[in-house]
Write a structure and sequence with these properties.
The structure holds 2 protein chains of 2 kinds.
Chain A: H1 3-31, H2 35-39, E1 47-51, H3 58-72, E2 80-84, H4 91-98, E3 106-110, H5 113-121, E4 130-139, E5 142-146, H6 154-164, E6 169-173, H7 178-190, E7 195-199, H8 202-210, E8 216-217, H9 221-229, E9 233-238, E10 273-280, H10 285-300, H11 302-310, E11 318-319, H12 321-341
Parallel strand pairs in A: 1-2, 1-3, 6-7, 6-8
Antiparallel strand pairs in A: 3-10, 4-10, 4-11, 5-8, 5-9
Helix pairs in contact in A: 5-12
Chain B: H1 2-14, H2 17-35, H3 41-48, H4 57-82, H5 91-102, H6 106-139, H7 144-159, H8 166-180, E1 183-184, E2 191-192, H9 206-224, H10 239-247, H11 252-267, H12 272-286, H13 299-314, H14 316-322, H15 328-339, H16 348-351, H17 353-376, H18 378-384, H19 389-408, H20 411-430, H21 435-457, H22 469-482, H23 484-497
Antiparallel strand pairs in B: 1-2
Classes of the chains: A alpha/beta, B mainly alpha.
Chain lengths: ~350, ~500
Amino acid sequence: MNAFARVRLQHARRRLTLSACAATLLSALVAAPSPALAQGWEPTRTVEFIVPAGTGGGADQMARFIQGVIQKNNLMKQPLVVVNKGGGAGAEGFLDIKNSKGDPHKIVITLSNLFTTPLATGVPFDWTDLTPVSMMALDQFVLWVNAKSPYKTAKEYIEAVRAAGGKMRMGGTGSRQEDQIITVSITRATGARFTYIPFKGGGEVATQLVGGHVDSTVNNPIEAVAQWRAGALRPLCVFDDERMPYKARVTDTMAWSDIPTCREAGVPTDYVMLRGIFMAGGVTPAQRDFYVNLMRRIRETPEWRRFMEEGAFNTTALSGEPFVEWLKRAKEEHRALMKEAGFLK
Amino acid sequence: MDELQSLWQGFAVALTAQNVLLMFLGITLGVLIGVLPGLGGANGIAILLPLTFTMSPTSAIIMLSCIYWGALFGGAITSILFNIPGEPWSVATTFDGHPMAQQGRAGEALTAAFTGSFVGALVAVVMITFLAPLVAEFALKFGPPEYFAVYLLAFCSFVGMGKGSPWKTIAAMMLGFAMAAVGMDTVTGQLRLTFGSTELMRGFDFLVAVIGLFGIGEILLTMEEGLEFKGRSARINARVVLETWAQLPKFWATSLRACLIGCWMGVTPGGATPASFMSYGVAKNISKNGHNFGKGEMEGVVAPETAAHAAGTSALLPMLALGIPGSPTAAVLLGGLLIWGLQPGPLLFVEQKEFVWGLIASMYLGNIVGLIVVLTTVPLFAAILRVPFSIIAPIIIVVCAIGAFTVHNAMLDVWLMMLFGVAGYVFKKLDYPMAPMVLALVLGDRAEDSFRQAMLMSQGSLSILWSNWLVGSITAGALLLLFWPLITALRARRAGGA
């Protein structure tokens, strides 16, 4: 027997013992109280995790974080690779998964562009083309100003914006997307007009505010927290219907929970952004359940909880029917908001 | 001298056996990533990021940043040997590097490129060590008008020196601008020039264009000229390294300028690619060998490589000091910081001293390790040219195709690469310059975005480009460079007439 054959044989033997092990494990699982898991579907090859945005943004960070948690805790046997398809404000990624009907080895993380991109550009896709898996969290938006500016409350700031008559600059990510929708909503609620300046990514927007090139932003907490801690930015209010729950001090004097809601600060506007996981359309319930379970286990890890706190996320997580109901409502809200703002194509 | 003490402790952190091993591993992986066109530093690090989740943050960043250094070094190799830029910032290296290789001086070109890279990186690291807070402050001064002025400067430093017909330069540049406009427009949120095609939504990727124009175009030319590499007689012994080193000191002025341009572009997130173009352009204008640039001048290799490496290194500074990524690669590293449980931002220097200074120390060590690794392999790489063309050409085309595919995992990009290859061949035959087109393609939409953002800010008034000393002096400098040939011509005529 040559060396090569011997190695092959050893391999075969090892695989045999491995499968024997797996068989014992399997029978143990079947005997265990949750037989559904043992009978369930599992990925048979590498799973592609599509990010309908560029590298480095909020969705990309979360996707890579999820990839890290899965790997660190061995939550999946097959590897998961993150693929960025951000062309056309995410249309590229969504069309890819729409066209992969029935493929259980592709999942996608969404942001608000799931609703805004088809409405603003007319690219033909809709959330109903996809299979909802779960909502992982809702991302908050906070009204930020430079710490050197004199405005201590949202009310003061909005008064100043109104007085400036459209000269004050609001920096935001992209055009006809969530940041601009919020800006228009503020104008509709208070009559204060802004000059909206679109940038490519949230990090860039926060930097422009620190450098004083724009007067305010509606950055997500995770995009601006570092600058807040360093004393360069000041949060005025959060665009949610209740305050954030995180009571641990972020700066010397404030915690996330100390930021008032915009409604209580006199700016009656709210907006939260979906961070959810979807699959292609036409997959089986067993395939969907695998990912629902996987995502639930990710949310149970301590790493995830820390990530949620650092980014001050709203940890509402939904799957199944309640998630579908939420999606239906969110789409109608986006349509209404964008229609009012004149952003519909 | 707080910095020196911190740095010393940083060396202690970085110099454990495990970390040094990771350095060598990272550099080697990085060189491979740099050599494979398309698989850029950002992609490479994104792919390898999961490997580091179980390491300590300091070891992880040491390995990943070494991959980054390796990729910066490696990009030069294929540019010089085959005229295929492995990375966008090595495009300018092909201008003189490849002619050198064709003259049988591949070893010299590689040595010059690697040494230039090393010098650039070293200067940038010294700057990071001692000036970090100051420089970070400066980066914040850049708003849309300042960005636009910087891009304008990059364009002008290049236009003003075209050696062929200026009309051909402008035609090539306009073609680049047109291609840069394809895809999503940031300012209006609308799709442009996609003609309803999903594939066109992501626009033309710069890397795909470059791989095609330079790599495939070059292979087509070689085929026409008789299926043989020029420069087969390349000397491939180790002495060539020492002999090249002896020649390098006389380019000190060019190196210094390149370092300055590089550090500046890296900190103000212009990035390594425009830095390399700008440095090449400026060197060509100022150097007394300028008229020889493009024909295989060693100075034309040193200038872009030094600047690219200085920029690539200093791009990490805004990331560390402010939490702003200066380059796509830095953006991916930033994501890594979060996974390792560190929060990037202004407080990183205060709260994670060991991490930050370990990283800075590893920048010194990583670049030394990098230089050793690549220099010892110079003869090896130069020897590739001895492989018969009929064997290596198909391999190059396959590697190029894989590279183009990896950029976006799209088959269309492979076809586009072929198309760009034919375009590159036609450009060469008709004597149209390719560099202006490439520059316009890579910076076109960024320049357009920042111009329109600036116009939104000023309600449409151009005076914003002179609204403070910073933007005003950059804009003035750009115009000066644009009209430089005209000015010298006028002066020459006056001198001639007198």
